[in-house]
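Record type: ASSEMBLY
Status: queued
Input:
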Amino acid sequence: MRVRLRSFAGAWNRFFFAKQSPVPIALFRITYGLLLIATLVLLRPDWLAWYGSHAWISLQTMQTVEPGTRINLFSIIPQSDGWINALFWVFLGSTILLTLGFLTRINSVIVFLCLTSIHQRNLFITHGGDTFLRLAGFFLMFAPAGAALSFDRLLRIWRGKMKRGTELGARPRPQRPWAQRMIQIQLCLLYFAAFCAKVKSPVWLNGTALYYVYHLDSLRRFPVPAWFLYPTMLKLESWSALALEFSLGVLLWVKDLRYILLALGLLFHLWLEYSLNIALFQWDVLSAYILFVDPADASRAWNWIKLRAAGSN
Amino acid sequence: MPRVNIVAINLFLAFHLIAIICWCVPLNLPLFPLCRRLVRPYFLWAGLFQTWDMFAPRPWGSNSYVEAVVIYKDGSRQTWSLPRMEQLSLTERYFKERYRKFSEVLQIEENDALWPDAARRIARLNSTPSKPAKTIILIRRWSPIILRPDGSYQPEPWDQHVLLGYGVKPEDLR
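Status: finished
Output:
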């Protein structure tokens, strides 16, 4: 029993605390920031319609239907359109700074506060991608997201806190990835929970679920080939979606299967992006795939690309 | 790193790991409901609540949208609808996609507390000082999606259901 506990503790420590390159979390920070900027740009024309003093749902109604103490800057600031617009610009400015990696920690906190606030202000317009960004944003506050590919790192070097050769010339200092691991776990739980919710339903088990999805006018983006809608194909697609969601939820941690599953997941989301109109959902989820790429593999791939580029010149 | 920090981080990780699993995995295993109840106040406060039920347990079984009949003080009327994705361009759909979600939410009877706010906003959007709205009738229109054995699709006739009749007050238009 003691041996088992010790081996569990060892595995736990290796998983959460064995130091690794901060480049994946830094790349995630940049992608995360760009997606939030895109979200804000898309929200801008209707910002006051959703969050303003005469919004579709008033703050008071929101607090009545979704009671409880919540992080929500809207309940602190005056309910005038000027203040609510100011919040937009603070949110956008902070997101840009987070993307650049300037005052990363502070900006990750501001971004999380603003993001949570707009969700709490109107919970009825958020999709799964928004929820994932909010959850990832929570753990990003604790991550060494500015340890690489950031202005913070450059500033530390310029101020002489890091010596050339040990930091700039070489790779960024390895960091404990526990916050990154939580974002990865959150991604897997997204898939696993979606699988569990679907597998209980007869329409998913008998393979007809996607018939309804493909015929929802409001969700259609580009035309789906007719043969995709044959009953046999619909069954195959519905079951494949279930199998893939289960695999991405559970088997993504198996190293030998990881890249195959990531590739299949990428194709799956690209197909959904083509066929369904759910704004940035697919990209929000795909952004966390970066965290599953081993820094050593990424480095090898980068070197290969550089060699190919040099060869073609 | 000081030992106390390591212990604190481990506690933080263990708590969040267990709490998030219990919260979001829709399995009725023993202790899951109790855990959900215990962490609920913290999750609501911190924004860690989550559900992953898109198209689950089953996708929507009908095409539907919300429209409003606006009746003016002078007796005239017009029909107004929330932006409908199928009528928008590709770019517009990216910007207006939130209306799809909002429209879905408005159609659910349990969300009837949202209807007066929506009616007030529709009244403001469709009123001018010289032509104020007097009544807003919120209507859900839908056409069921019926699965045929050969997989073909035939659009069904549209049905409708009145969600709310709202008498506009002068202060709603200020």
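Annotation: The longest helix of chain B spans residues 3-24.
Annotation: Residues 7 and 13 of chain B are 10 Å apart (CA to CA).
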